[in-house]
Amino acid sequence: AQSVTQLGSHVSVSEGALVLLRCNYSSSVPPYLFWYVQYPNQGLQLLLKYTSAATLVKGINGFEAEFKKSETSFHLTKPSAHMSDAAEYFCAVSEYQGAQKLVFGQGTRLTINP
Amino acid sequence: GAVVSQHPSWVICKSGTSVKIECRSLDFQATTMFWYRQFPKQSLMLMATSNEGSKATYEQGVEKDKFLINHASLTLSTLTVTSAHPEDSSFYICSARDRRTTDTQYFGPGTRLTVL
Question: Which end of chain B is more exposed for a tag (fewer CB within 10 A), N or C?
């Protein structure tokens, strides 16, 4: 069975600092991996996805993530945090190419300090 | 593009009543829609997969007679919580997969259900 673990339910960084949100996955088949962001009272928005092409994936709003098979990780990073990045972030895994049956991590709340 | 709406955004009902939640893809056709449940400070849990014109596929542990799903058109899926009880109170989120670009799910804003 697939699973996702997000280390740290709450991450706080200063504006302009590096953002690093950790995600480790478990999958018996080559996974498809996703990062979503959820702003208060809004739906989830896709940040980026890994679908077995390049291991370094660039997404929207300056975010990127690197797929590391040896570490079973798909950490999300952004070089310089902005106040507007404050939100809940979810990592998800699917074993199906067609984005079926996403399994989500617990979520990480990102707070940006001025 | 790729906007998914849900209605209502929140609902309060009495125990024993039924509640219907709509999920619409506004600018694309969705052959597949998904229904998730999210408890406070917890992750999203897939409840069922809904395919247009066919019966929904429910995840293990989800009562199909309790959570009725209908996907009558390529832009609309509904979730009906029947005989709701306080333990059904939760945040229900739908998503839709664009039939043209099948590798991404687009999510609705969610519906907060409170059962008194």
Answer: N
Q: Longest C-alpha distance within chain B, in Å?
A: 41
- Report yes or no: A51 at the B interface, CB cutoff 8 Å: yes
CB contact under 8 A, B43 and A32: no
For residue B56, count CB atoms less than 10 angstroms from its CB and return exposed for 0-12, middle for 13-18, buried for 19 or more: buried
CB atoms within 10 A of CB B13: 16
Mean pLDDT of A102-110: 93
**B23 Cβ partners below 8 Å, 6+ apart?**
B4, B5, B6, B33, B35, B76, B77, B78, B79, B94, B96, B108
